[in-house]
Design a protein that fits this description.
Blueprint: E1 8-11, E2 16-19, E3 28-32, H1 46-63, E4 68-72, H2 79-88, H3 92-109, H4 125-137, E5 141-144, E6 147-150, H5 166-173, E7 187-192, E8 207-209, H6 211-223, E9 227-233, H7 237-252, E10 258-264, E11 268-269, E12 272-273, H8 284-289, H9 300-308
Parallel strand pairs: 3-4, 3-9, 9-10
Antiparallel strand pairs: 1-2, 5-6, 6-7, 7-8, 11-12
Helix pairs in contact: 2-3, 4-6, 4-7, 6-7
């Protein structure tokens, strides 16, 4: 397939703009981190949805709609989900189904094309366990006190995506201090579940996955051990994407997980990023369906246009 106008993308991994050359022009592969379905998405969460929808459309235009595979996951097992379901007094599945339904409606209203695959974390537990077993066998993970942890010092070039000093990584990771960990940077791949928490049988007992292993498993399942582009918000560079790279590379023995890493910037609110932790957010659903802001609901195409007026 001949591409008349070469595409240049900024690669977070190399900190350079690079000409994009897919591994296979017959199937250009894109993975973007999707929502954790514990609450409605705020308008800042719409930024990556719209940004990577534009990229998906561009890739389809260049290589042909049938030659691009876009995967955006749904995280439906997470401690935030457990806590919110308990807070509301409803079943975890009820919460995730309701939140995902509203999310899909919101994204459609923003005129985003549906990804080719939207894998759920809970449907990929077997792949997660298989990757964890590979990491243990390869000497990159260890079992301790019912947990399985990634052994960060076992990977000499850990940190190449974020390029942070060790002290900054320790602070940024907000890692749990636990007596069973060999090193303070080591992160959880699998952890035990209490009776009232979601859990699956594993070689290490009934438990559930850590957050980072989910995307490694879903991207591997649907795009392979190495693929073209991995995207997400800039807040995911560390620790999430750094740990994805560590897991996938050390499990499969490659130098890269994805050739290009792309990250969108934050939506700013009076100089600060919009986030639920700061309380300075408004949900997509509110803007589309209420007159709380400006005395009328906002149309999806207006929100989309507003987002695209600034550089991604």
């Amino acid at each position: 397939m001949s591409v008349s106008t070469p595409l240049k993308l900024y690669n977070t991994l190399t900190r350079e703009r690079e000409f994009f050359a897919p591994i296979d022009e017959g199937c250009v592969r894109l993975y973007v981190c999707g929502p954790t379905v514990y609450d409605f998405a705020h308008i800042g969460n719409a930024r990556p949805l719209i940004v990577f929808d534009v990229l998906y459309r561009l890739l389809r235009e260049i290589y042909g709609a049938s030659h691009v595979k876009y995967v955006r996951n749904i995280t439906d097992v997470d401690d935030k989900i457990n806590a919110r379901a308990a807070e509301r007094g409803i079943a975890i599945r009820e919460l995730t189904e309701e939140t995902n339904r509203v999310f899909q409606e919101d994204v459609a209203a923003l005129n985003c094309l549906a990804p080719d695959v939207q894998p759920r974390a809970t449907e990929h537990i077997a792949e997660m366990i298989a990757i964890i077993e590979k990491l243990i066998a390869n000497g990159h993970a260890y079992e301790a006190d019912g947990h399985v942890l990634f052994d960060v010092p076992s990977m000499p070039d850990y940190g190449q995506l974020s390029r942070r000093p060790l002290d900054d990584m320790i602070a940024g990771a907000r890692v749990e201090v636990a007596p069973y960990k060999k090193g303070e940077m080591d992160f959880v791949l699998w952890k035990p579940s209490k009776e009232d928490e979601p859990g699956w049988d594993s070689p290490w007992g009934r438990g559930r996955p850590g957050w980072h292993i989910e995307c490694s498993a879903m991207s591997y399942k649907h795009l392979g051990e190495v693929f073209d582009i991995h995207g997400g918000g800039i807040d995911l560079v560390f620790p999430h994407h750094e740990n994805e790279i560590a897991q996938t590379r050390c499990a499969f023995g490659h130098n890269v997980m994805a050739n290009i890493w792309m990250h969108n910037g934050f939506l700013q609110v009076e100089g600060e990023k919009m986030s639920k932790s700061l309380g300075n957010f408004v949900t997509i659903h509110e803007l589309l369906n209420s007159d709380r802001f400006g005395g009328r609901p906002w149309k999806g195409e207006v929100l989309r246009f507003a987002m695209l007026r600034s550089h991604y």
